[in-house]
Design goal:
Layout: H1 2-18, E1 21-22, H2 23-30, H3 34-46, E2 50-55, E3 65-69, E4 75-81, E5 85-92, E6 97-104, H4 110-126, E7 135-142, E8 145-146, E9 152-154, H5 166-174, E10 178-182, H6 183-194, E11 203-208, E12 212-218, E13 221-223, H7 254-257, H8 259-265, H9 268-271, H10 276-284, H11 288-312, E14 316-320, H12 322-326, H13 328-339, H14 344-347, E15 351-354, H15 361-376
Parallel strand pairs: 4-7, 7-10, 11-14, 14-15
Antiparallel strand pairs: 1-3, 2-3, 4-5, 5-6, 8-9, 11-12, 12-13
Helix pairs in contact: 1-3, 2-3, 6-15, 8-11, 11-13
Length: 380
């Protein structure tokens, strides 16, 4: 029975990754004999996880019947709870966004967020097409520490009640599996599954928002650490006698290189009135004050990234920040800052990239965690 489950998982993964694909090709790529492939394919067909389509090209003999993953067999929800926003998406089982709903948050208390969250989930479910399995799971990510029991235990920039078991509340309300994850971990997972990191086995994802979060993927697996707290590098010390941080430390990286730090560094007449788009517009107009602030933003981001590169030696670093994604000059500033601090061999052996999924990276990553657990349930 165990061998059958292992084989079925292998075959399902092959079809998900490479469909349309023939039985013969699955046998060739997995090394399983044709009778094993045939019996496991039949089991997956019965479960509505795959279906057959028209015939493919023949290399001699009968044309093969092609198999396709049924991405509409069910749906998943991914939710990103930010410091001042909530971003919710409904996806099919391949991560294609079917419907999205986002909103600014005025009140940052956990009780208010919980009420908004439950309402948004109900709204997404109402938009869900009919399918054999319906809603398969919900992934939720937050900007803070999430332990291995999926409990939120610290959110430095949110007014959170740590006695609130968000996972249990949502599962009780909607009767589906729920997975709680750190926002940067979810973003790293999203970029790995669907975005800029698809072709990298070892990467670091850096989310630069109100604070700074880091998601680490080593040998294709998300690295969470012993208790689930790995990646809190926004609290890396870059100034021994620096500003006091909400985490209890001094001189944390995010106090100098986060969006909050960028906005605080602007001239006083700009701090209250400027949005992200205003900054991008003024930078494109060569406003000298804005350009100087952005140059420093990139400089301080580069200081922290240098430590990340020296620690993990990744193939790629992916930065998720709307301003960095929109202004190549900031990315150049980051690169120059890193280059002035690292040895040449390291500098030439990694890619510094911006997110291709943008604001949806964490929500997509959270959704993909739920999808992965759903598919594993058939072969566990």
């Amino acid at each position: 029975m165990l061998v059958k489950k292992i084989n079925q998982k292998l075959i399902l993964n092959e079809i998900v990754a490479n469909s349309p694909i023939s039985r013969a090709k699955i046998s060739e790529t997995t090394g399983l004999n044709k009778s094993t492939v045939s019996s496991q394919v039949n089991a997956l067909l019965e479960k509505n996880l795959i279906f057959e389509i028209g015939q493919g090209q023949s290399s001699g003999g009968r044309k093969p019947v092609m198999l396709v993953f049924n991405k509409n067999a069910g749906y998943s929800i991914g939710i990103d709870i930010g410091v001042d926003f909530i971003n919710c998406i409904l996806t099919d089982l391949k991560g294609t966004i079917v419907f999205e709903d986002n909103q600014k948050l005025e009140n940052q208390s956990s009780e208010e967020i919980k009420e908004v969250l439950l309402l948004k989930i109900k709204n997404l479910i109402a938009q869900m097409p009919d399918s054999p399995y319906g809603l398969t799971g919900i992934g939720v990510c937050v900007p803070g520490l999430v332990n291995t029991d999926q409990k939120i235990i610290f959110t430095p920039n949110l007014d959170w009640n740590y006695d609130l078991d968000l996972k249990a509340v949502i599962e009780q309300e909607f009767k589906v599996p729920v997975f709680i994850e750190n926002e940067a971990n979810a973003g790293a997972n999203g970029e790995k599954e669907f975005g800029a990191a698809k072709n990298y086995e070892n990467l670091v994802y850096v989310s630069v928002q109100t604070g700074i979060g880091v998601g680490i993927i080593i040998n294709n697996d998300l690295y969470r650490g012993v208790k689930g707290y790995a990646g809190e590098m926004g609290h890396l010390t870059i100034d021994l006698n620096g500003l006091k941080c909400s985490c209890g430390n001094r001189g944390c990286w995010e106090l100098y290189a986060s969006e909050r730090a960028l906005f605080k560094s602007l001239p006083k007449n700009h701090q209250e009135m400027l949005s992200h788009q205003d900054i991008i517009h003024l930078a494109n107009q060569n406003n000298p004050e804005i350009l100087m602030a952005l140059q420093n933003f990139g400089y301080y981001l580069g200081i922290g990234l240098t430590s990340i590169l020296n620690t993990f030696n990744p193939q790629a670093v992916i930065i998720r920040n709307h301003i960095v994604e929109s202004l190549p000059m900031v990315l150049n500033s980051i690169k120059n800052s890193v280059a002035s601090r690292t040895y040449q061999q390291l500098e030439n052996n990694y890619q510094l990239l911006t997110s291709t999924l943008g604001k949806n990276a964490p929500a997509l990553g959270a959704s993909s965690i739920a999808i992965g657990k759903f598919l594993e349930s058939f072969t566990a």
